[in-house]
Amino acid sequence: MTAPLPLCVIGAGSIGRRHIEVASASPAIRLTAVVEPQAETRAELGQGGLPVVATLDEVPKDTRACVIATPTPDHMPSSLAALSRGWAVLVEKPFADTLDNARSMMAAAETAGLPLIVGHHRRCHPYVMAMRDALPQIGPLVGLQGFWSVRKHDSYFDAPWRRLPGAGPLASNLSHEIDLLGFLTGLPVEVTALTSSATRGLVIEDTAALAFRFENGALGSFLMSDAGASPWSFEASSSENPAIAGSDQDYLRFTGPLGALAFPSLTRWGASGPGEVEWSKPLKCIPGPQFDRIDPLRAQIDRFAALLNGGTDDVLCRPENGFAALEMTLATALSGQTHRPVRRGEVPGDFTGVLT
């Protein structure tokens, strides 16, 4: 039997605590430390019996890996510090705050010869992998439609940083959707964005309407809002987040010349008989398969441990994929602020999501 991976979690905010939870529950992981600079939070976690320390220098020397769950601007310095100590890194999404900082992280990991994984955990759902396999059944992608809208509670914005530029749904939530599209269909190469802050009246956007162009010429549209209540979002569809109510409603639709697929149910509409699929012929509805619910963060950390113990993996988000998702997320923010389409390769390396 393979020995558990000695791993620390850096950052004990809301997502950090989820990583602490799954690391503590996984037989593939031995949690060596939780690194948290806030004394009050350390005291709280310490009362629960967790091995809490204030700095990386206090982490036990036998640690081999870490999860970085700090605010995005800290992803680069914490990653570089971890890699310099010989730790493999699983860093939360988005990969970094700028493309230049993401490049620095990738270069450091390559120099150190250590794995660097980006925490796009949705890839680990079994129905996400099944959707990737099912999409060829509808032929080449013609178009897709996404609708992500959840109403964040008013007290969510009590934290000052959540009202500042870079904290809206584009920076906080869209990167998940971009990586998911990349995993399923390939990333868009161009985006046009309209943004609005009309509902909450904050500096940051609360709603965005996006138009995507893909490499094969396919088009897509996506509505993102954290001000409008709806049953349509990945979190509601999957019930993966205990803090967000589930709905079991599809929120993505894909169409091709041979039919259509809805996600995450994998309901497929296809030919009802022989001959050309065209509008005079009814489409047949084929229900999708059923999957057991899993905790994708637990699946992700187990995959991470297996990778470090000599395994192979084609699901975890590699740095080049995390970089590509970050680039198109920042392209969306840039488009919304410049009121023009932005293509891959046009995002400045130091752009943080806010024009100065």
Describe this structure in words.
- With 356 residues, this protein is α/β, with parallel strands linked by helices.
- Helix content is 31%, strand content 22%.
- The protein has helices at residues 14-25, 39-47, 75-84, 99-112, 126-134, 169-185, 234-238, 296-308, 319-338; strands at 5-10, 29-35, 52-53, 65-68, 88-92, 116-119, 143-149, 188-196, 207-214, 219-225, 252-256, 259-263, 268-271, 283-286, 342-343.
- The strands form 2 sheets. It has a 9-stranded mixed sheet with strand order 14-13-12-11-7-10-9-8-15. The protein has a 6-stranded parallel sheet with strand order 3-2-1-4-5-6, with helices on both faces.
- Strand 11 and strand 12 (259-263) form a beta hairpin.
- The chain is globular.
- The model has no long low-confidence stretch (mean pLDDT 95).
